[in-house]
Amino acid sequence: MIIIREAREADLPALLAIYNHVVLHTTAVYTYEPQTMEARAAWYRDKVLAGYPVFVAEEDGRVVGFSSYGPFRAWPAYKYTIENSVYVLEGQRGKGIGKLLIQPLIGSAREKGFHAVIAGIDASNAASIRLHASFGFLEVAHFRQVGYKFGRWLDLTFMELLLDTPAHPTEG
């Protein structure tokens, strides 16, 4: 049975392994170099300090995926918009783990008063596009040849989910 829970520092080695496999073997992340444990620990601390969630999927005591969100852009007027990330362990994809990891992200975003959730997805990642669409995300942009990895140009799809939030949030 798979349980979803908040991540702990003890999960960082598993999160690092999942993330680095994604970096080295997929186009889900547009970077080339694996992360160090120090960088992943700093990422985790920054998430916790900023109040952004990190969820893990655990099966039989083993972390098989994780999800989080963070700021979409740094400018103040974007403060009600976040960007999500969902990663599942190689060999565990296609089992519904991604769905289990997105649900608490959306719930958390609603609770914290965010209005828009953005997913930046490699356009060739049909599974991730279908996953996000199943939660009501709509494609709002398709950027052609904006990334280059594994000897080829990559297209990036932006999907968006608008949440029911106050009509007139505060500025400043």
Structure characteristics:
single chain, 172 residues, alpha+beta, 7-stranded mixed sheet, 7 strands
Could you characterize what this model shows?
It is globular, with a radius of gyration of 16 Å. The chain contains 4 helices and 7 strands; from the N terminus they run βααβββαβαββ. α1 (12-25) crosses α2 (37-50). It has helices at 12-25, 37-50, 97-111, 126-133; strands spanning 2-6, 54-59, 62-71, 81-88, 116-122, 138-149, 152-162. The chain has a 7-stranded mixed beta sheet with strand order 1-2-3-4-5-7-6, sandwiched between helices. It starts with a strand and ends in a 10-residue tail after the last strand. The chain is of the alpha+beta class. β6 and β7 (152-162) form a beta hairpin.
Map the helices and strands:
Blueprint: E1 2-6, H1 12-25, H2 37-50, E2 54-59, E3 62-71, E4 81-88, H3 97-111, E5 116-122, H4 126-133, E6 138-149, E7 152-162
Parallel strand pairs: 4-5
Antiparallel strand pairs: 1-2, 2-3, 3-4, 5-7, 6-7
* Oligomerization status of the protein chains: single chain
Total E-strand runs: 7
Strand content: 25-35%
C-alpha-based Rg, rounded: 16 Å
Q: Stretches where pLDDT falls below 50 for ≥5 residues?
A: none
Quote the distance from N terminus to C terminus.
44 Å
Annotation field: number of helices:
4
Could you give the order of strands across the largest sheet? 1-2-3-4-5-7-6
Average pLDDT value? 96
Q: What characterizes the major β-sheet?
A: 7 strands, mixed
Estimate the global geometry from the Cα principal axes: globular
Helix fraction, binned, reads 25-40%
* Structural classification: alpha+beta
Q: Return the string of H and E elements.
A: EHHEEEHEHEE
